[in-house]
């Protein structure tokens, strides 16, 4: 093991093959990196090793930070879509146009960009694993939760600081500004709409109004204008919840590749649409699977079901202090009786089609074809 490179160690750590992992490995051959484990490459450090020792003390507990850590380590596609892989495939789709003398430097910058974006997202997810323990309810039984919170804060901070250090290392003010705007959106997403005591999202009360699409310009999105309108609300929540960051990363990698402004904008819209398509597919899988796990109450199927049957909102409203109090089995049964599943499928297909259109406007090569496969296979 001592003679192996970090990339070779990461390959050995991979979980067994699945249909999805087979495709990602095929894509990784195109870009030349084991991108599914970019985070781990950055985490192989003395600082993280020290934090991992404390994380081990939470093994066996049900603290949210442990579930997040498992998703990172084992690449759960339902929770961690391959953003870094998409960014590098997008980069490779235009890098053939770059003069050889500049290609190596730009390629290194693009790889660093892909890694730091994954670190930002992972750090944010770990921070979301913090459990709210009111002071009045603290006791011997809550010590594990409080300790887990401290680890979640330290881990998340470490990843975000590392990512921002890498971002500064690119020495590109335009990329710094673009990525920072996506990170700002990601932070604001935690305060979007109503939340329960654990900061879990609650859907807006359904309104019988026209439900037009919104733009991806987050500065123009007004919360009061979108809540209660299923497609608008879902799009706004998802854009703020990470899709904006993915889009800005795609835009930035085109800037690093010295592409003109139109291509940079197309890359941003591509990133937004592919992120929305994947999120719709993930939420659809969560609702239609046999799993007994809780699903997000602000997901597309739930919002569409509330539009078709507003009375379902009473089930959610009665548990607005803690989403765990919702009868998910009964809610799922009632959602499946509406046309919510069909509308969510249409939502996925719409964004997948638009993402494909934007990537085809950027180029036609092996990388583009691989991106199209990833879009349609998730």
UniProtKB/TrEMBL annotation:
Pfam families named among the record's database cross-references: polyprenyl_synt
GO cellular component, one term: transferase complex
One biological process term in Gene Ontology: ubiquinone biosynthetic process
Keyword Transferase (UniProt): yes
Keyword terms, alphabetized: Transferase
InterPro entries the UniProt entry points to: Isoprenoid_synthase_dom_sf, Polyprenyl_synt
Top-rank taxon: Eukaryota
One GO MF term: prenyltransferase activity
Xref: PANTHER family: ALL TRANS-POLYPRENYL-DIPHOSPHATE SYNTHASE PDSS2, GERANYLGERANYL PYROPHOSPHATE SYNTHASE
Family, similarity comment: Belongs to the FPP/GGPP synthase family.
The protein, known as: Decaprenyl-diphosphate synthase subunit 2
């Amino acid at each position: 093991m001592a003679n192996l490179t970090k990339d070779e160690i990461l390959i050995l750590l991979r979980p067994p093959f699945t249909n999805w992992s087979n495709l990602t490995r095929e894509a990784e051959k195109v870009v030349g990196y084991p991108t599914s484990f970019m985070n781990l490459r950055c985490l192989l450090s003395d600082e993280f090793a020290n934090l991992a020792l404390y994380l081990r003390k939470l093994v066996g507990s049900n603290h949210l930070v442990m579930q997040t850590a498992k998703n990172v380590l084992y690449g759960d596609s339902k929770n961690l879509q391959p953003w870094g892989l998409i960014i590098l495939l997008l980069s490779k789709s235009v890098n053939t146009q770059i003069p050889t003398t500049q290609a190596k430097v730009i390629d290194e910058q693009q790889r660093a960009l892909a890694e730091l974006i994954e670190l930002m997202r992972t750090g944010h997810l770990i921070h979301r694993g913090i459990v709210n323990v009111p002071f009045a309810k603290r006791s011997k039984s809550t010590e594990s939760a409080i300790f887990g919170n401290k680890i979640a804060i330290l881990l998340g901070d470490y990843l975000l600081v590392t990512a921002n250090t890498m971002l500064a290392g690119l020495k590109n003010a335009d990329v710094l500004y673009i990525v920072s705007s996506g990170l700002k959106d990601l932070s604001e997403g935690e305060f979007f709409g109503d939340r329960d005591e654990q900061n879990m999202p609650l859907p807006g009360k359904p309104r019988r109004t026209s439900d037009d699409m919104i733009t991806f310009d987050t500065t123009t999105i007004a919360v009061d204008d979108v809540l209660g309108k299923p497609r608008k609300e879902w799009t706004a929540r998802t854009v703020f919840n990470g899709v904006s960051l993915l889009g800005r990363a795609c835009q930035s990698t085109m800037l690093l590749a010295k592409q003109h402004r139109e291509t940079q904008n197309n890359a941003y819209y591509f990133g937004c649409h592919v992120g929305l398509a994947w999120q719709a597919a993930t939420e659809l899988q969560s609702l239609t699977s046999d799993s007994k796990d809780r699903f997000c109450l602000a997901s597309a199927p739930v919002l569409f079901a509330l539009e078709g049957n507003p009375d379902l909102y009473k089930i959610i409203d009665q548990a607005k202090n803690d989403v765990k109090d919702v009868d998910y089995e009964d809610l799922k049964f009632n959602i499946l009786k509406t046309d919510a599943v069909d509308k969510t499928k249409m939502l996925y297909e719409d964004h997948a089609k638009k993402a494909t259109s934007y990537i085809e406007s950027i180029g036609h090569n092996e990388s583009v074809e691989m991106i199209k496969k990833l879009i349609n296979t998730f």
